[in-house]
Structure formats: structure tokens, C-alpha cells
Amino acid sequence: MSDNAKIKIGNKEFDFPIKKGSVGPSVIDVSKLYFKTDHFTLDPGFTSTGSCESSITYIDGDKGQCYYRGYPMDTLAEKSNFLEIAYLLWYGELPTKIEWDEFSNAIKNHTMVHEQIRVFFNGFRRGAHPMAIMVACVAALSAFYPDSINIKDPEQRRISARRMVAKIPTLAAMAFKYSLGQPFVYPDNTLDYSENFMQMCFAVPAEKYKINKVFAKALDKIFILHADHEQNASTSTVRLAASSGANPFASISTGFTSLWGPSHGGANEAALNMLKEIGDVKNIPQYIKKAKDKTDPFKLMGFGHRVYKNYDPRAKVMQRTCHDVLNEIGNTDNKLLQVAKELEKIALNDEYFIEKKLYPNIDFYSGITLSAMGFPTAMFTVIFGLARTVGWLAHWKEMMIGNKMKIGRPRQLYTGPNPREFKELSKR
Ligand code: CMC
Q1: How far apart are CA 307 and CA 310, in angstroms?
Q2: Which own/partner contact pairs does 306-309 have at CB distance under 8 Å and 24+ positions apart?
Q3: Best of 306, 343, 381 to mutate for ligand 1, by most ligand atoms within 8 A of CB?
Q4: Pocket around ligand 1: residues whose beta carbon is below 6 Å from it?
Q5: Under DSSP, is residue 5 helix (H, G, I), strand (E, B) or coil?
Q6: Is 228 a catalytic residue?
């Protein structure tokens, strides 16, 4: 089999190398296309375009499987814990006992944020969306920790990454507390990562807070399921922002910006709102009809995925986690879960959804689960971003240490006016 692809333009033929990955589809390396042919490729939405080489996450969209550094993500969700996944994504291997002790202690010892950040919060309206606060506060970390923004220094890169893994949950919990008008709760470094986050979100000074172990375990799984997903919109945004040499905190904040949109991380919030709007199984047919109507912008939120053309493996784990949480609160006949299950059943048997290979994605069940644990919808995307931070950081590091780091600079097909002459206002 040839290792080259041929492109014919007019009567000239050009060869381009085909590169094979360790698994998954090969790519045609068109980086010399413009140099050789004076043409660019056009691929809005990057439906056929790879933007980088990466050895972090592999998604088999047809089989509905996802692997972090070669390990099936659903196995990791059952058997590992989120901090271990953070280590795996960053270093490429699971930690030994000594490595684990060093890493987990380091994260636990960086959970506090600079006291001045508390003052910073006062500038926000109480009703501000916590994602708006996250975008601002994560970028603002570069103002507080200027000693770890030199991207060329591996040690500073390591410190800034650990600072973000440790401090972003603290910022997220502060955003939540601020919206409630409750005092911020300081981190407790004796607790596990997820337990600490729950305590910072739900404890109040007036009462002793008892951590629900089932909820903490479920939350840890939710973090693992969201930890990475190869070159999605927010990860690609982080890579593009960082490709200019922007500092790590500023670069990761762009991940939050991109994640916020309803087609991406904002879908969990949108999915729960949709289930509430549907309200009752009897209303489902009318919403299925709307979703199929090309003149109606309505989409079934929590359905469909650019890469998965099979059931999203994250949705399967999420569905089980949802049951664990609802069992724990004794709410097994949860109305929203009934609507979700029935909606899923009807959609999976509907010709439109079958033909377009639209299956439930991770966001379909995550909203019901988080809501049952006591999180308001506005916090769902924040929790997604908190978890995805470890993936963004791994991609950022991969780009920094690679020898092919180049500023991202896509080209375009220009369709505007041809060059023309400027006329003074009086002559127009
Ligand atoms: N409901 C109804 N129709 C849909 C849906 C849906 N949820 N998703 C896609 N379609 C249709 C779409 O209208 C299009 O139809 P046609 O070919 O007739 O024009 C076809 O299916 C292909 O969809 P697309 O929008 O071209 O596919 P995409 O790969 O560009 O978009 C998506 C993927 C996830 C943005 C989209 O499926 C969607 O908007 N889903 C709802 C939002 C959502 O749940 N997002 C979370 C994604 S998973 C979490 C994450 O990674 O952030």
C-alpha cells in the first residue's frame, strides 16, 4: 500500500505523505500543500482535519470507546480516582506509590488561593454566572502567581499546572458560595479531592458538615469522565491560545470560555433545563417532533456527538452513577429520570436518530445526577471545567515539550469585496 496520497490540480499531480498513528485513522500530511500547490484546504468545523499529533486520549467513535493513555476510561472510572487520572494524563503513566504520595500531597498543599482573590470576588454581581467568574479568576491567577508563568521553564510549567489542579476547585466552590451569599469555606487538606470540593461547596460555619461518601465517589467518577476528550473545542482553544506563548493561566482560562457554550460543556445545563421543560413523559413526542423539524432550531440536548457514532461510553457510566446517587437519596422514582429514560428509549428507536447515529452523550444524565447531589444548574459546566482542566493541562504540556510548536494560524477562503478605492465621506 502506498504511503503517499496524490492530489491532482489541473494536470499536475502532487504527493503528500500518509502518516499512521498507533491506532485509528491515518492522516494525509498536507502541511506542505500551500508551498507545493498555492492552495489551502477548507474544512470549517474541522470535520476532517487533525490539528496536532497527540498521545493522550484516543476515542473510537464507532465502537463508542475512549482511552486515557491507553487505558479504557470506563475501567478507570470504576477502579481509579480523579487525582490519579490527573497524574496519568500529565505524566503518561499511572503513578507508583512513591509518585502518588508526592503528587497527591503536593496538590493537597496548594489548595488555598491568595487572600487577595477574596477581595477580587467582591467586584462581581451576586447573580453572576459562575462560569463568568471562572473565566476571569483562572486568567487572574497569572497576576497572583507571576513566578510560574515562564512557559520555557519545565519547573515553572509543573508548578503552574499543579497550582491550577489544586486551586481551581477552590475557585469553583468560591463562585458557588458567592452566588448563595454564604461565606467562603477554606479547603481542608485532610480530605480527598472530591470530598474537599463538596465540603467547600456545601459546608456552612453554623453546622458540622458530614460528607456523603456515595456522593463524593459519584463526583469523583464525574470528574474522571470529564477529564479529557482529545481535540474538542475547548482543548483546541487552549492549544491555539497557548500556541502564541500566552502564559499557562491565561491559556487555561480560554478552555473555560469555550466550554461554556451549549454545544459543548454548557449542554449539561441545557439538557437538564430541557428535561424540566418537557416535564412529563406524555410531552415527549412533541419534543421529538421539534428536534426533527429542520425549521425549528430545537435540538435534543445531551444527544449527538461529533466523534461518537455509537453510545457515548461516558453516558453509560454516568447513567449508573445517576442511579447510585438517586438510590442514596431514596428518589428512585425521580420524575426527570423517568422523562430522560423514556426520551432515550423513544429516540433510540426513531428512524431520524438511528439514521444520523444520534445517541445520548455524557451530558444527558450528568445534570440529573449533579442536581440530585445539590448543585444548581449554573454549576454544572463549572464542574465539567474543573475536571477538564487536567486534560487541558496535559495537552498544553504536550504542545510545550513537542518540537513542532508553531503558532496556530488557520487560513481562509476570502469571499469579500475585491480591493477598491477609498472615497472621502463627502463623495459617498
Ligand atoms: N437533536 C436533533 N438533531 C440533531 C442533534 C440533536 N441533539 N444533534 C445533531 N442533529 C442532527 C443535525 O441537525 C444534523 O442534521 P442534518 O444532517 O439533517 O443537517 C445531523 O444530526 C448532524 O449534526 P451536526 O450538528 O452536523 O453534527 P456536529 O458533529 O456538528 O454536532 C453536536 C455535534 C454535539 C454539537 C450536536 O450533536 C449537538 O448540538 N447536540 C446537542 C448539544 C449537546 O448535547 N452537546 C454536548 C456534546 S458532548 C459533551 C462535550 O463534549 O462537550
Answers
A1: 9
A2: 306/47, 307/59, 307/61, 307/230, 308/59, 308/61, 308/64, 308/359, 308/361, 309/61, 309/62, 309/357, 309/359
A3: 306
A4: 229, 232, 263-265, 267, 291, 299-306, 356, 358, 361-363
A5: strand
A6: no
**For strand 65-68 and strand 71-72, is the pairing parallel, antiparallel, or unpaired?**
antiparallel
d(CA 72, CA 263): 25
Residue type at position 99: E
Query: Measured in whole angstroms, how far is the alpha carbon of residue 60 from the centre of its chain?
Result: 18
User: Cell numbers at residue 330, please?
Assistant: 431514596
Question: Which atom number of ligand 1 is nearest to the Cα of residue 305?
Answer: 34
**Phi-psi category of 237—alpha, beta or left, where left has phi over 0 and alpha has psi -120 to 50?**
alpha
Give the number of other CB atoms < 10 A from CB of residue 96: 9
User: What is the pLDDT of the chain when averaged over all its residues?
Assistant: 94
Counting from 1 in the atom list of ligand 1, the atom nearest the Cα of 299 is: 1
Please write the tens of the pLDDT for every residue from 51-74. 999 999 999 999 999 999 999 999
User: Which SS3 state, helix, strand or coil, does residue 8 take?
Assistant: strand
Question: Do 222 and 380 contact (CB within 8 A), yes or no?
Answer: no
Phi/psi for 357 (5° steps) reads 55, 50
Contact 278, 287 (CB under 8 A): yes
- Looking at 243-283, list the stretches that DSSP marks H as alpha helix, in order from N- to C-terminal side: 248-259, 267-278
- AA letter at 317: V
Of 74, 361, 101, 334, the residue nearest 221 (C-alpha): 74
Per DSSP, what are the bridge partners of residue 60? 65
Cell 472530591 belongs to which residue?
194
pLDDT digits (tens, 9 = 90+) for 95-116: 999 999 999 999 999 999 999 9
Strands 12-19 and 4-9: antiparallel
Return the residue matching grid coordinates 503536593: 106
Which residue in 305, 312, 324, 333 is the catalytic one?
A: 305
The reported pLDDT for the residue numbered 332 is 72
Alpha-carbon span 401 to 375, nearest angstrom: 38
